[in-house]
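Q: Convert this sequence to structure tokens.
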Amino acid sequence: MGCDGGTIPKRHELVKTAKAPERPDARVQLYAAWFSCALSKRPLQQPVVACGLGKLYNKDAVLEYLVGRGGYGDGDKICGHITGIKDVTTLNLTPNPAYSSVNAPTQSTILGETQEKPLVSPFTCPITHREMNGKSRFSFIQTCGCVFAEQAFKEVPSTTCLKCGKAFDAKDVVPINSAKTEEIEKLRERVEVLKAERLKEAEERKARKKEKKAEKKREKAGGVGADGLTAEGGSGSGSNSDPEDGKKRKRSPQDSGDAKSKKASFNSSSASARANINMAIPDLNDRSQLPLSMRVQSDAIKSLYTRDKQPVKETYLTRGTFNRFAAGF
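A:
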């Protein structure tokens, strides 16, 4: 075979065989699913949200995705079912006392380093105290967002949340990072049903608002007129109103007389105003055409335009000062 130098060839060097498919590292997948955001791939930091399919996200990343969907290249593939902030639930997580900043991953964490670092989760189950690191199944309640290990639901069966006390149904419990295909399909159907219910509720709210606006318009159109009657010809106080209220609304003869006198005074004042508008403009230079109040001037005003002919009296400060000063030279 030409094995010069005593070399012994092996079978894989002589025979070409089909390569086995490469399997992804289970530890790396576990780290990416339970310790990092499914959208931004950054370490999970509170506030943490979860979608209807059970994936974990940082809330700020979801908000950035909703504002501009082009910010993340594969965002539509990962969370295309998220169309609004109501499609996610803010999780009420329980911190892990065994977690420290030494175990905290940084944004520059290399996936290969997960083989060396221990998987210490920053969150734990408040009932069983199991760490949320992917080794145990965890679920959250959509109505309140509290997170528990699946063992807690089995050991303490209840229709109220064991942490906050809010009531929930079995369909409100969503598994986190489920790997079962059938379970994921059911969750997708559940997401579509919830979206349809929210859309229906929004349409009903809009219809109620339109009805309220139309009712207000009808009330304005059928309001009480000047004669105390509505547009339908009935009393403004309604069909069940007290007859004494209708008597109170009737005008007394004294009120009608006062209204007539006010109207007459208003007509006279308007006639005098029209007469004053049509009067000729007086010549201000001719004082005889001015009103009597403007012809007479007070002493104070006259003193401004007349010059006093009497000599100014000298005081002890000014009397003879110049003469004494001039006499010294």
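The radius of gyration is 47 Å.
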